[in-house]
Amino acid sequence: MLKRSVFIIILFVAATLPALAQKSDDAAFRTIVKQMLDAQTAYDAAVLDKIYTADFIEISPLGEFDTRDKVLGFYKPELRPDPAKVNVAVDASEFSIRNYDKAAIVITKLTFQMTAQGQQIPPRNMRAMLVFRKENGTWKIASAQYTGIRPAAPKPQEK
Description:
Number of strands: 6
Radius of gyration: 21 Å
Low-confidence stretches: 6-21
Strand content: 35-45%
Number of domains: 1
Largest sheet: 6 strands, mixed
CATH architecture: Roll
CATH topology: Nuclear Transport Factor 2, Chain: A
CATH class: Alpha Beta
Structural class: alpha+beta
Mean pLDDT: 87
Distance between the termini: 80 Å
Order of helices and strands: HHEEHEEEE
Strand order of the largest sheet: 2-1-6-5-4-3
Shape: globular
């Protein structure tokens, strides 16, 4: 009877371990997305260098194919706009995470809040699709594609 109880407990633990690992990975993906957004808004290429794979590629919101070096060059600290003139905050929401053990796809909605010359600009929304891959046992971003979300059309005025 004791052997049977131990066997059942072992089976239960073995069955739940993948689900626990999946939740842990999901939290890691969300954390890495936040690190990426924070680094992009701060023009911190050093952080991006750590979280992008060696062969990272990006499809920009303009549809351009950007290599890792081009992306890192864009975020050099000396190229950061003057925060007194331009300020950007980004929020990630609506996550869809599909984990395939050695790779994962994360889709998220990005909402950009911006001010320019002290004036609030209407928020802009974008979808980001990020492909993650383990590199030396650590999740990193292998590619990113950004697609703009059209603002809602104004409601027609009633006559």
